[in-house]
Amino acid sequence: MMDFGKIIDHIYQQLLLEKNLGQVAGYIPELATVDSEKFGVCLINTDNQCFSAGDWQEQFSIQSIVKVVTLSLAYQKLDAQLWQRVGVEPSGTPFNNLSRLESDYGIPRNPFSNAGAIVVCDVLMELFSDPREVVISMLRTLAADDDINFTQAIAASEKSEGYRNMALAYFMKSMGNIKHEVEDVLDFYFDVCSIAVSCEQLARIFMYLAKHGRSADGKYSYLSEGQAKRINAIMLTCGFYDEAGDFAFRVGLPGKSGVGGGIVAVMPGEFSLAVWSPRLNEKGNSYRGLRFLEHFTDATERTIF
Ligand code: DON
What we know:
It is a single chain. By secondary structure, the chain is an alpha+beta fold. It has helices at residues 4-17, 66-78, 99-103, 114-127, 131-143, 152-160, 163-174, 182-193, 199-205, 207-210, 225-238, 244-250, 287-300; strands spanning 40-45, 50-54, 60-61, 196-197, 255-257, 262-267, 271-276. The longest helix has 14 residues, at 4-17. 6-diazenyl-5-OXO-L-norleucine (DON) binds at residues 63-64, 95-96, 114, 158, 165, 193, 257-259, 284-285.
C-alpha cells in the first residue's frame, strides 16, 4: 500500500525550501491580514485514515470553495431544473468577470464564477426559509464537527468593497435571473464565503464527492451518484476559472480553489485532499497549493486520467 503520509511529508518539506510566490488576496481587506506563509495539508481516504502536514488544523476563509456546497444543496433539490438559471460550461474568464454576462443574457456560464454562485444563493433563498442555517449545518454534519462558523469581520470587509459582485448581481437582476433583493442575496453570498474551516474539516466535508454523494461516515446521502459525478465534472472543468485547463493538465483531479488560499481536490472512490497556502497566483489560485497537488499526483499517480 502507498505511504501517503510519507509522500505528503516529503513534498511539504521540499516546498518549504522553495521560494513562495504570489500575493495574499488584497481586494478583501480582512483577508490581507492573514500570515502569507501558512501552509497546511490534509488527506482523508475512504477508510477514514487521515494524513496531514503543517497548519492543517488552523482555520482559514473558505471563500469560493463553498460554491461547491451551495451548488450541491440547490442541485439536490432542483436537479436538472437548476440549469435553466446557470450553465455548466467553463468560462475561460476570471472569477469576477462581467463582460460575458451581458452577451449571455444574465445566465452565468457556470456555478463557480461569482455570478453563477450568486444565482445559486438566490435559488437557495427560494428553497429554504433559513438558508444560512442549512449551509452551516451541512458543513458541520459533513465535517462531523460543530466548530464551523461564519466570520462576520470577513463578510463585512468583503461587502465594504464588493462593487464588482454588486455590478454582477444588479445586471442579473435586470435580466430577471435574481428573484430576491440584490442586497439580501449578496449578504447571504458574502456570509457563506466568510465561513472559517481547516484543511482537516475541508477534506472531511468533501468526502461526499469522493464517496459518490455520501458523507465520510456513510450515514448521510447528499447527492445521487449521477449528481455527484456531475458536480465533480463541473469542478474539473470550471473549478479554477481561467486556470481550469492548467489544473486538469498539471493535477488531473476535480478540485475547487478559494481566494483564502485553500484548494480541495477529490479522487472519486479514494480520497479528498485539502491544501492551504494564502499566496495566490495571478489567476487567484493558491500558488503553493497548486504546486503541492501537482507533485502529489505525479508522485502517487493517483489521478482520474
Ligand atoms: O466574491 C468573491 O470575490 C469572493 N468572496 C470569492 C472569490 C474566490 O474565492 C475566487 N477563488 N479563487
